[in-house]
Amino acid sequence: MNESILEKHHVVQVGYRGVDGSPTLKHPFLDKIMLTPNMLSKKSIRQMGKKVTKAAKDLRTEGIDVSNYNILNVVEDIEDARMLI
Description:
By secondary structure, the chain is mainly alpha-helical.
């Protein structure tokens, strides 16, 4: 990064919910989904759906409200950080 930019501007880094910070949405099924061969086949999509459903259930059991982890919340996090500057 060009250091002269920092003299006149603020730089804010915002982590993604469920990835950076705590809690994380780490689950073995979610890692395995990315390794699914032929991801767009009907069979693979069904299998991925079952894995995501199971992972979400497990995370809810751990007390994580998975409904708070979506792109709209990520946008709100970025907007909140922007408003602090």
